[in-house]
């Protein structure tokens, strides 16, 4: 990707995700600093997916503010996949990933991202939540095991990455594609525009 026209903004990207950094670069933006936060990601009992994802994005912004509160803005995001009320979070365990993919196989599910822009001086938060639908084809046991061997699913919400091999299982997407990869670009740009950070 060309780095021509990438503008450095006075924001901290509160994310260890290399995808989020790349997605920002795609729209010509580079954060001043990147901070990985370490928050408790355990869902509260009966917590709805859209409530959970918002809570985590908020927690990442607050955690980043405690580490670096001098840069004017913090951008944080959280992405999850949801099959009905069930939250399919990232995992590094093959057995859990297999369960997730069996749930998604042959069905439609939702992917939510909550994006937060925090003003570190006032503590004021602006946010957007985006939901996309993803239709998976039916996976055979062989396809599933082969995909698990790739390890591309590790640390991805829903245990797949649409930007990788899993694209060959995805029949249709409705809504924002960048949302599924971890940062809905249109809505993120809207937040940044709302604070006069970009045109
Ligand atoms: C569904 C899906 C998720 N993902 C990724 C986006 C997110 O990075 C990740 C979900 O985990 P997140 O907790 O949202 O993010 P992260 O752990 O990568 O980074 P951090 O917590 O530091 O912000 O899954 C893909 O890359 N492709 C996909 O198709």
From TrEMBL:
Q: Which residues catalyse the reaction?
A: 78
Question: Which co-factors does it depend on?
Answer: a divalent metal cation
Upper classification of the source organism reads: Bacteria, Pseudomonadati, Pseudomonadota, Alphaproteobacteria, Acetobacterales
One GO biological process from the UniProt record? nucleotide metabolic process
Main localization of the protein described in the UniProt heading: cytoplasm
Look up the EC number in the record and give it.
3.6.1.9
Q: What's the protein name?
A: dTTP/UTP pyrophosphatase
Keywords annotated in UniProt: Cytoplasm, Hydrolase, Nucleotide metabolism
- Organism domain of life: Bacteria
Location in the cell reads:
Cytoplasm
Any one GO MF term held by the record is: nucleoside triphosphate diphosphatase activity
Q: Which reaction does it catalyse?
A: UTP + H2O = UMP + diphosphate + H(+); dTTP + H2O = dTMP + diphosphate + H(+)
The UniProt record lists the keyword Hydrolase: yes
Question: Cross-referenced InterPro entries, in alphabetical order?
Answer: ITPase-like_fam, Maf-like
Can you list the GO cellular component terms from the UniProt entry? cytoplasm
Give the record's family classification.
Belongs to the Maf family. YhdE subfamily.
């Amino acid at each position: 990707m060309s780095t021509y026209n990438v503008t450095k903004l006075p924001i901290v990207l509160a994310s260890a995700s290399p995808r989020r950094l790349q997605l920002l670069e795609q729209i010509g933006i580079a954060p001043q600093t990147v901070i990985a936060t370490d928050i408790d990601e355990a869902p509260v009992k009966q917590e709805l997916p859209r409530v959970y994802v918002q809570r985590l994005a908020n927690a990442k912004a607050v955690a980043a503010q405690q580490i670096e509160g001098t840069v004017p803005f913090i951008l944080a995001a959280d992405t999850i996949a949801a099959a009905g009320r069930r939250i399919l979070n990232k995992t590094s365990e093959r057995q859990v990933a297999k369960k997730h993919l069996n749930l998604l196989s042959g069905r439609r599910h939702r992917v939510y991202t909550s994006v937060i822009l925090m003003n570190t001086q006032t503590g004021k938060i602006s946010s957007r939540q985006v939901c996309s639908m993803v239709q998976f084809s039916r996976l055979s046991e062989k396809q599933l095991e082969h995909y698990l061997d790739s390890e591309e699913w590790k640390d991805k919400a829903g245990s797949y990455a649409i930007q990788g091999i899993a694209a060959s299982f995805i029949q249709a997407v409705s809504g924002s594609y960048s949302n599924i990869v971890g940062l809905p670009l249109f809505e993120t740009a809207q937040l940044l525009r709302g604070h006069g950070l970009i045109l």
